[in-house]
Amino acid sequence: MLQFFAKYKPFAIVLAVLSIVIIYGMYTALKPVPKLKVYQPADFDPELVDSTLQHVKKYHTIPDFALTNQNGKTVTQEDYKDKIYVADFFFTTCQTICPIMTDHMLDIQEELREDREVLLLSHTVTPEIDSVAQLKKYAMEKGVQDEKWNLVTGDKKQIYDLARKSYLVVKDIPGVNTYGMIHTENFVLIDSKKRIRGLYDGTDPEEIKRLLGDIAILKGEEE
Predict the structure, then answer these.
(1) Are residues 54 and 144 in the same domain?
(2) Alpha-carbon distance 219 to 141, whole Å?
(3) What is the pLDDT of residue 28?
(4) Which residues on adjacent β-strands are paired with residue 149?
(5) Considering its fold, how many domains does the chain have in total?
(6) Are residues 139 and 208 in the same domain?
């Protein structure tokens, strides 16, 4: 009996290894691939969405825009074409949540320093204060990489419309009809098709970890 098993031992080992490979392959093939939700205006808190879009449940994308960055360069959708990016709204003189948000955006910049497929985009909500020179000063103080991260200013109505009708991350100031904005702490993840794929609390370190994880998932989707 022992001689019999000894004779077929190599075959049994090969069969066992082959079985493990097959089982693992089947498990991998059947295991669901993580995929991020595509967000629509109807998925958001109505306070963050322009009243004309609160009912929209599909096909929402970020429209074309033309703003000016910290180097005086015009930034448009072409600069983000086929890229994944993280967007937020801030202002340089903010002393509350903005410094925390900026620090966390810097963490993302550092984590993805060599990744050319992921960019960052921060819009000022006080363009009347945040001139190109002011943004440049802020960028230099914080360590912003120009090739990675645009801080943009421009026409206040355009910024307001982007915030309320595109990224869905600011609230109106009650009683103010001249594009008054209260920006939130939210970071927004945008895919290469200009769709919203995630919303994160930019003041929470755990949310930044989740954002980085979701970027990895999104990159897997787009391969």
Answers:
(1) yes
(2) 31
(3) 44
(4) 120
(5) 2
(6) yes
Q: How many CB atoms lie within 10 A of CB 43?
A: 15
Are residues 116 and 73 part of one domain? Answer: yes
Q: Which residue has the tokens 């509350």?
A: 96
Look up residue 101 and give its DSSP letter: H
The strand pairing partners of 67, in sequence order, are: 75
pLDDT at 220: 93
In this structure, what DSSP letter does residue 161 have? Answer: H
Q: Is residue 84 part of a domain?
A: yes
Q: Do 86 and 188 belong together in one domain? A: yes
Can you read off the two tokens belonging to residue 61? 């994308």
* b/e map 187-210, b = 16+ CB within 10 Å: bbbbbbebbbbbbbbbbeeebbee
Q: Which domain holds residue 148?
A: 41-222
Distance CA 204, CA 183 (A): 16
In this predicted structure, what is the pLDDT of residue 63? Answer: 96
Please count the other Cβ atoms lying within 10 Å of the Cβ belonging to residue 95. 6
Query: Which parts of the chain register pLDDT below 70?
Result: 1-33, 172-179
Entry pTM: 0.83
Query: Do residues 111 and 2 share a domain?
Result: no
Task: Count Cβ atoms below 10 Å from residue 9 Cβ, excluding itself.
Answer: 10
